[in-house]
């Protein structure tokens, strides 16, 4: 079995596992954050856990770029910038901004994150920088790239804005939860998740690739059930929670 066959076998596996994860997470809440469960084994501080599980995505993707065999066109540099803009923030900035960094998550959750992020970075990076037919500079003017980049930037902005609102809810020393207001929280409970889904759907469109589509579906599979759980949690814990809010899609769901 050569590398190309192995790659596409792993890609097919990623689609199949995403379907399983999507259905499973409607019944089992991932045990971190407000759903932490000590029965999942030893714990690690949140900020360290986020750093360890997100950093492989930034590092592996950059390695794929450096050693990739495809010509380093401006388009590939644009893809590198898009990916690293998200993951450098998520791995090396976000962990030190979260208000509950002193709280803990199960080590097993962190390890699952390490495996997924490394695997996902390999699929996307190896395809873009080595196995694809290449992306000429003219791809920067293709409607798929332009629309995808627009979605990516929009989702990136929504995600960061919503995270900022959530971080601002707690005063120094507070550990509880409050009802978030402002921004897209006016209409939905989880605009940060909505932003991330838009972001990676934009990535799938901009790259026009099966690995990009796999990542978008994985993002949906992970975040849609969690948004549903968050929405129900807010409603059960806050009697005055705004009735007009939906879980993640304004006026729809």
Summarize the structure in words:
The protein starts with a helix and ends in a 16-residue tail after the last helix. The protein folds into two domains: 31-135; 142-171 and 179-253. It is globular and about 55 Å long. 62% of the residues lie in helices and 2% in strands. Strands 1-2 form a two-stranded antiparallel ribbon. The chain has helices at 3-24, 46-67, 74-92, 107-131, 143-167, 191-207, 210-237; strands at 43-45, 104-106. Helix 6 (191-207) runs antiparallel to helix 7. It has 253 residues and is mainly alpha-helical. It has seven helices and two strands, in the order αβααβαααα.
Fill in the keyword field for this structure:
253 residues; mainly alpha; two-stranded antiparallel ribbon; globular
Q: How many β-strand stretches?
A: 2
Number of domains: 2
Estimated radius of gyration = 19 Å
- CA-based shape: globular
Largest sheet: 2 strands, antiparallel
Terminal-residue CA separation = 45 Å
Percent helix, as a range, is: 55-70%
The total of helices stands at: 7
- Give me the strand/helix succession: HEHHEHHHH
Strand order of the largest sheet: 1-2
Alpha-beta content class: mainly alpha
As residue ranges, the low-confidence spans are none
Mean pLDDT: 94
Q: How large a portion of the residues is in β-strands, by DSSP E?
A: under 5%
